Structure to design on (527 residues):
């Protein structure tokens, strides 16, 4: 029969108990630092609780083991027998706490995934807004530059023309040999230089549309739909795409067109209710690239339709976002048209037509309220 | 609502029975079972945690890889101690004895149970590495967090 000393067990138990307390304490310290650095992170809070529970387990279990050895070696085994049930019970409780905390991980991970998704969405929206802001600034800068150039040209042209005309008359009146004639010719030269300068100012205007580029309409419409998809889902409104199978090329600015279409879609979603449908169709027509947004919501009255693009009007259906006047402005910038038709109780149809080349479109068929 | 009221009525009716009231039960021997069930609960919850964590994007982080491995070791430790507690009851009473004048007991190896019991007593060989892996993982996560926040400050 072999007998074996329990001394190695005791030594390892003692050393291991101390190591467990130290390591679990360090774990708790790191977890606390992680949670303090990011107080709103559910994952950091989870780790703090998890490590707190681990530390409690290590402390209760290890101190129990150390105490057991110390009391046994000092001949106070009876005292240990008294304390042992308490130590074991506390250990059991710490197991339950660790297990309970750990079971929450599943829920925490779900929250974290949603937070990451939302953060990505916010970042994407911020980038879109930044791009849009840049484009709007570019449009405003171009407009301001053109307006200033035209104003200067207008203000300068008239006096210069008058000066030139007067000098020519004087030149005709002066005999050719007089000394003053040379001075008049010099004045006339300077007036001509000013006229040339004015014509250069005028040429600034056609340089606009620098921020416009050849684009395919379908991806822009798809992105606009995606931006309102969540709102539509919450309202139980169906967004039905019916996009042209072929690319619809036009000359324009993607951010501006996207914001205009998204605004119209958002309006439609807000106006519609459960089970309503919004059909977004694109196609190439003889007039240009067409976007048709049709909903089967409550519609708009004829009186409202007449003033729908009035910038000072506030209609509940149209109260979201930047407003229809802004949409009108964007489509105007693209030399396009936007038309709204509706029959109350049967829905609304918004028709946008964008010319394939700027300046190509000159009008749109009547029978509705077009810009 | 009706089934709920019916259940409440039956429970109240039970209170009217004076004999063999079951409100209090003796727990003289339940301590070990509670402890073992707590070990089992710990193993189950850690298993779900380790499996779930491996399926998430966290598993790609070095720090979390250490934590997940530490979790598997902690499960193993919990299982080993569970078996150890059962063997505590299983081995004969005179297997562990204190020789006269000695402070350290001896273990009489009369079968595989005693041998396994002795091996399982070295459970700190599993618990300490598990805790070290948790510590290492958390340290890496903290370093990663500090690095990302300092790079953010540099950018701003």
């Amino acid at each position: 029969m072999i007998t074996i000393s329990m001394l190695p067990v005791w030594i390892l138990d003692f050393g291991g108990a101390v190591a467990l307390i130290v390591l679990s304490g360090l774990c708790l310290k790191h977890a606390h630092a992680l949670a303090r650095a990011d107080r709103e992170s559910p994952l950091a809070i989870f780790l703090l609780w998890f490590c707190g529970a681990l530390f409690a387990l290590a402390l209760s279990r290890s101190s129990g083991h150390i105490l057991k050895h110390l009391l046994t070696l000092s001949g106070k085994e009876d005292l240990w027998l008294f304390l042992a049930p308490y130590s074991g019970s506390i250990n059991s409780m710490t197991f339950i706490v660790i297990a309970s905390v750990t079971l929450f991980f599943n829920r925490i991970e779900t929250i974290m995934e949603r937070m990451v998704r939302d953060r990505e969405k916010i970042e994407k929206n911020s980038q879109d807004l930044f791009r849009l802001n840049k484009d709007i600034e570019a449009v405003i800068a171009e407009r301001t530059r053109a307006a200033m150039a035209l104003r200067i040209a207008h203000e300068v042209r008239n006096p210069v023309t008058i000066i030139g005309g007067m000098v020519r008359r004087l030149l005709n009146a002066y005999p050719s040999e007089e000394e003053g004639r040379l001075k008049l010719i010099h004045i006339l030269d300077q007036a001509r230089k000013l006229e040339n300068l004015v014509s250069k100012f005028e040429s600034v205007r056609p340089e606009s549309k620098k921020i416009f580029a050849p684009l395919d309409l379908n991806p822009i419409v798809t992105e606009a739909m995606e931006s309102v998809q969540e709102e539509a889902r919450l309202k139980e409104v169906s967004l039905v795409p019916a996009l042209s199978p072929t690319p619809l090329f036009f000359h324009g600015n993607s951010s501006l067109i996207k914001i205009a279409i998204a605004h119209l879609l958002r309006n439609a979603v807000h106006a519609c209710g459960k089970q309503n449908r919004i059909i977004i169709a694109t196609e190439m027509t003889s007039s240009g690239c067409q976007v048709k947004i049709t909903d089967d919501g409550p519609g708009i009255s004829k009186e409202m339709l007449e003033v729908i693009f009035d910038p000072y009007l506030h209609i509940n259906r149209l109260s979201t976002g930047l407003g229809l006047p802004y949409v009108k402005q964007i489509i105007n910038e693209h030399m396009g048209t936007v038309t709204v038709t509706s029959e109350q109780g049967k829905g609304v149809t918004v028709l946008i037509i964008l010319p394939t080349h700027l300046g190509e479109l000159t009008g749109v068929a009547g029978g509705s309220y077009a810009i | 609502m009706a089934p709920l009221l019916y259940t409440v009525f039956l429970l109240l009716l039970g209170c009217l029975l004076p004999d063999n009231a079951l409100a209090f039960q003796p727990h003289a021997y339940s301590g070990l079972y509670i402890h073992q069930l707590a070990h089992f609960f710990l193993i189950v919850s850690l298993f779900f945690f380790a499996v779930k964590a491996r399926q998430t994007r966290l598993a790609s982080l070095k720090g979390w890889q250490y934590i997940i491995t530490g979790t598997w070791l902690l499960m193993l430790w919990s299982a080993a101690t569970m078996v150890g507690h059962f063997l505590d009851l299983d081995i004969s009473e005179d297997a562990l004895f204190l020789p006269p004048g000695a402070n350290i007991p001896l273990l009489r190896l009369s079968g595989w149970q005693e041998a396994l019991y002795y091996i399982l007593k070295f459970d700190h060989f599993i618990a300490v590495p598990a805790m070290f892996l948790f510590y290492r993982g958390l340290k890496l996560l903290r370093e990663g967090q500090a690095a990302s926040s300092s790079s953010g400050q540099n950018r701003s």
